[in-house]
Design the sequence.
């Protein structure tokens, strides 16, 4: 990785850690105290969070198009401002309506400020040389829950849940905004000059020289389906993993301890992808990643709760690599032209799946118990089959 790439990866990775910690990972800690403070139930908080994810899906294509045109720096900086407004809105909420509106604002920020925007920013700067930088920011931001949950818990204990929201808002102003402001500026239409291309540096004088590659709709719909499946499984497990393990006979403490293995497994798998298999086609790693969840679930179902650690590690590893595939596969199969807008549209089904996953999988657990894993296993296997059938070359 070149010096300009490494610099932008560090800045983006740290900013993404704060963005994820202050949005996606916020309800896990604050939903209950927020509900108590507002006189509502935790499911109402999660319903507002689901609405935020729906809005993030709606804003994603427009944010991606803006990044294609202007570069990621101004879009991500604007996203920091919207994060501040949403977090301040949560802190000032007096009832369920106020809280829901604040989450809607955060949904807009999530659509313009999480991984899809970060990936599009890197592709806008480094074009076809973006696979390693995309992996790099997921390595850093992979610790978002590791940092975010304890930090939110500490702020809530010291200042209450409203104070925690204000604390995250201040971190966006004092830390995340300067980090995004330090990103390289993108000019022209995203093409690299010959010298910049050889050095992996963004051009400051480039002119429009490329026409977007026509979309192979079979590839587009295949990726949209596979990513939607992956994010349904990931979000369902994030919401219900301890409950799933308890159904095998484990205690809550043991289930939480097993769940703690998911984060390190994600980062370890991303390091493996970055170091040992990055020369392989990303479809290979995506297919292996899609098979990891059903393999781990099958082992646990057959051999019982003591093998829950294996399930946690395999699920986490697969989820970690699929996050990278979400950024690299559209680049490899459809090209860097109009990447941001295409990425935004590709993630609409995934965001919808995310919004529905906690409720749908929760109902399945109520009805089927541990065998609800058959749903996530079948969906993951279908995604692996889609990756297997996908062409490896970019369509002409």
Sequence:
């Amino acid at each position: 990785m070149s010096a300009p790439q490494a610099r932008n990866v560090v800045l983006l990775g740290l900013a993404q850690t704060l963005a994820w910690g202050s949005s996606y990972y916020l309800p896990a800690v604050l939903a209950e105290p927020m509900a108590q403070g507002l006189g509502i139930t935790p499911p109402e908080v999660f319903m507002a969070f689901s609405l935020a994810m729906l809005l993030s899906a709606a804003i994603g294509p427009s944010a991606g198009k803006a990044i294609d045109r202007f570069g990621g720096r101004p879009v991500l900086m604007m996203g920091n401002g919207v994060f501040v407004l949403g977090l301040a809105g949560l802190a000032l909420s007096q009832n369920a309506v106020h809280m829901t509106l604040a989450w809607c604002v955060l949904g807009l920020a999530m659509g313009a400020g999480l991984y899809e925007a970060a990936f599009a920013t890197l592709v806008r700067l480094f074009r076809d040389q973006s696979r390693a930088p995309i992996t790099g920011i997921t390595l850093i931001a992979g610790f978002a829950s590791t940092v975010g949950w304890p930090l939110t818990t500490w702020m809530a204990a010291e200042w209450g849940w409203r104070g925690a929201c204000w604390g995250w808002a201040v971190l966006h102003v004092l830390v995340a905004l300067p980090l995004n402001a330090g990103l390289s500026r993108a000019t022209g239409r995203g093409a690299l000059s010959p010298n910049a291309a050889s050095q992996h540096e963004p051009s400051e004088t480039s002119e429009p020289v490329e026409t977007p590659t026509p979309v192979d709709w079979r590839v587009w719909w295949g990726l949209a389906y596979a990513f939607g499946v992956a994010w349904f499984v990931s979000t369902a497990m994030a919401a219900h993993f301890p409950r799933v393990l308890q159904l095998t006979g484990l205690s809550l403490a043991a289930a939480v301890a097993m769940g703690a293995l998911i984060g390190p497994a994600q980062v370890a798998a991303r390091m493996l992808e970055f170091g040992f298999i990055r020369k392989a086609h990303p479809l290979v790693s995506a297919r292996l990643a899609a098979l990891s969840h059903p393999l781990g679930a099958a082992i646990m179902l057959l051999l019982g709760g003591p093998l829950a650690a294996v399930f946690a590690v395999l699920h986490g590893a697969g989820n970690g690599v699929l996050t990278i595939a979400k950024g690299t596969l559209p680049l490899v199969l459809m090209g860097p032209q109009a990447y941001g807008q295409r990425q935004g549209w590709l993630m609409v089904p995934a965001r919808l799946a995310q919004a529905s996953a906690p409720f749908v999988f929760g109902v399945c657990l109520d009805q089927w118990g541990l065998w609800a894993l058959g749903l996530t296993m079948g969906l993951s296997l279908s995604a692996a089959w889609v990756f297997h059938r996908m062409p490896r070359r970019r369509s002409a």
